[in-house]
Amino acid sequence: MKRLAATAAAACLLLAGCTDDGERRTPLPASPAVTGEASALPLPSPSLPPVVNSDGCQGLVTAAQVQKATGLAVQASAGDGAAAVAQYGQAVQSLGLNARARMCPFGNAAGDQVTVVALTFPDAAQSQKLWTTIKSLEAVGGVGEAALSDRTKTLLARRGKAIVAVYLVAAAAPEANHLGQLQSVANAALAKA
Question: Could you tell me the superkingdom of the organism this chain comes from (predicted)?
Fold first, then answer.
């Protein structure tokens, strides 16, 4: 049960990393009333904090490969990919496992999103241990040594000491069968995982 909860937590982390809520802005505090007296408080800065853009993908899969595999005109999404990767590493450690994590988010203004997450373990026994905790998807072929999918948005594939997760949202047809696209992206990622 603890393993399933940790796996679910890792999936939730991925889904949180897949959505773009736009820029989050905190309102500026109200300006103090003008009284003619000098204030010791500095005026708040009207500028936004810098956008964080760190690479959590580390060359796993490119936007061109994802475009070719899915037919969606996506680009690499900005964000703190390195921080998201660290969260995956912590989730895996909570299961007593160790893995190198990489995360590659892609998207476009039309709402299409593709996120690829790869966990590479020191050995195949650790990847198998995590794989056995995944129960909610249907077994499919065509990628890796084993693959599980819902055929529309999610595919998990295992090969040797690596597990790759692909999440796809095609805005024009979100509930269509995207198994071929999911398999193609997973195969590209497994080649470098």
Answer: Bacteria
Reduced to 3 states (helix: H, G, I; strand: E, B; else coil), residue 139 is strand
Contact 128, 143 (CB under 8 A): no
Tokens 């890792």 — which residue?
Answer: 10
Are 148 and 103 in contact by the 8 Å Cβ rule? The answer is no
Beta strand spans in the chain (E): 75-76, 100-107, 113-120, 138-140, 146-149, 154-159, 162-169
Using DSSP's 3-state secondary structure scheme, residue 140 falls into: strand
Residue 103 near residue 84, CB atoms below 8 Å: yes
pTM over 0.85: no
The tens digit of pLDDT for each residue in 98-108 reads: 999 999 999 99
Spatial separation of the C-alpha atoms in residues 155 and 164, rounded to whole Å: 8
**Angle between the 179-190 and 63-70 helix axes, to the nearest 10 degrees?**
150
Interatomic CA distance for residues 82 and 88, integer angstroms:
10
